[in-house]
Structure formats: structure tokens, C-alpha cells
Amino acid sequence: MWNKYPETGKIMNSSAQQDRKATVKALTELLNGGHAHVTFEDAVKDVPAAQRCIRAKELPYSIWELVEHIRITQWDILEFSTNPEYRELSWPDDYWPGTEKPADEAAWEKTIAQIRQDREKFIALLKKPENDLYTPFAHGNGQNLIREAMLIADHTSYHTGQIILVRRLLGIW
Q1: What is the pTM (predicted TM-score) of this model?
Q2: pLDDT given for residue 11 in this prediction
């Protein structure tokens, strides 16, 4: 069976549709985490407020700084993937928070919620059949949707591991 995507005019046979579906399923699982490593949600669950802002000895970041960095970076990748008018952030200043701790509990919760929401938006982007996973974005320099999905998963996983390391050093893991 052949399907034509209304927005792109591209035609995809049922085998290609199945391949795409399997790829999107695997990317969704990768973005949600939990197979070979702890999920982001588990890593930040029940972190005492007083310890979110502590920089363990010899480490240049607190748990809050890592969490906020994940939020900023994931948002930036989502923005790049959806906005042809994307404006690049300045590295490293725009990718890290300006403070070692959240302003209050509401700021912490808002950051955690935003990470979930932006991840869900990115997964929805992947699931839209009219969004080609492999075609480079017109506004980039070779990046495509599948690369950006793997970038989010890789980046979040890396920093989730650091969150666990900080928790271990603080005696809260």
C-alpha cells in the first residue's frame, strides 16, 4: 500500500511506513529514557530543596544548574527543529543558569515540568508522518530531525548521569 503525505506530496510504501514507525518508537523510548540508564525523572525525584544548590567538592555545578542546563538545551534544540527563524544562543553563557539555585520551589517545579513538556513536543514532532526524519533543515548546516532527537537523548542522558553523581557525593542517592 502507498500513502501520500498531504503536506509534502511524498509517497511512502507500507514497508517504509513500518520502518519509520519503528524508528519513531525507538527514538521515543530513547528520549524517555530508562533502558540502559536511570530516567531524568528518577534522577531528580525527591531531591531535598536544600541540596539542589550545593556544589559538591571540586564540581563546577549544582543539581539545579544541571537541571536548568538540560531544560535550556532541550528547549533550544526544539526551537531549532521547529523554527526556520531560529537564533543561535551564545555558548556557554546562554546554556547555563545564572544562579546556583532556583529562586524557590515553584521555579524548580516549573523547570522539571518544562523539560517534560518540551520532550513531549519533540516526540509529537517525530510522530507527525509529514515530518521527514532525514531531510536536513533548510536553516541549518546538515542537521535533521533524527539527529536532533539523538542529540536531546544523548545530552540529557549525559547530564542525568552527572545529577546522579552529585547526588551520590551529597549522600542522597
Answers
A1: 0.92
A2: 65
